[in-house]
Amino acid sequence: MSGAEPSAAGRTVERALSLLALVCERGQASLVEAARALDLSPSTTLRLLRTLETQEYVRRDESGGYRPGAKTIRVGAQALGHERVVAAGRAELDRIALETGESAYLSVLGHASTALYVAIAEGSQMVRYVSWVGLTIPVEGTAAGRALTGGVPAGGFAAVRGDLDAHAVEIAVPVLGADDSIEAALSVVIPVNRVRESTEGDVGALLVGAAQRITEQLRALEPARVGGASE
């Protein structure tokens, strides 16, 4: 084969990837919008979307539009696992898990008012929460969501019971980037039967200190962004 012209299979893959990229960039797209944007017939677009949906790369929402699916989110989370915020937070996640015995998480804002888990240090307790990397939770009503959307006062933490599990307490703090914007949420999830009167305050203070150290590392990596200009 000369390779000068893409094969039919190659064109199908190219169209499917373009369609997936469109859905991810927009967060949600209808069949008509996708077909028009990519200059494809509605029948071709529907066939490709159904294939992507079967493989869990996209999903249909209540309105009939298409959103990024579970597999796309997992792949994206794995890629994010190599990003600087995860690298900067790895040692602190391990430290929190070691000191508390509970699982510690980093999450970032995802699509459609969700928080996406991108890293974990699993706790040592026999009964503990395990890896949720690649999974999303609603921003509204969750401690991590509050931390990601500015719902936590400076130097403070959010603690919410029953947001992720009816029998758990989630404690979260924001992690600031080099430009002082919220980059991620650092959180611990604890079974409610292990929460004592002082637990939330002690764990919250531990998270605040850890988040500050992660922020310092991010600032060291990107000093030119602080203040919005380079020296």
Features:
single chain; Beta-Lactamase; 42% helix; 231 residues; alpha+beta; 6-stranded antiparallel sheet; Arc Repressor Mutant, subunit A; 8 strands
Describe what you observe in this structure.
By secondary structure, the protein is an alpha+beta fold. It folds into two domains: about 10-70, Arc Repressor Mutant, subunit A (Orthogonal Bundle); about 75-230, Beta-Lactamase (2-Layer Sandwich), CATH 3.30.450.40. It has helices spanning about 10-25, 30-40, 40-55, 70-80, 85-100, 145-150, 200-220; strands at about 60, 65-70, 105-110, 115-120, 135-140, 160, 170-175, 180-190. The chain has a six-stranded antiparallel β-sheet with strand order 5-4-3-8-7-6. Strands 1-2 form a two-stranded antiparallel sheet. Strand 6 and strand 7 (about 170-175) form a beta hairpin. The longest helix is centred in the C-terminal third of the chain and has 23 residues, at about 200-220. The chain is elongated, with a radius of gyration of 21 Å. The termini are far apart.
CATH topology of the largest domain: Beta-Lactamase
Please give the share of residues in helix. Answer: 40-55%
* Gyration radius, rounded: 21 Å
State the helix count. Answer: 7
Strand/helix succession:
HHHEEHHEEEHEEEH
Produce a short descriptive summary.
This protein is α+β, with helices and mostly antiparallel strands and 231 residues long.
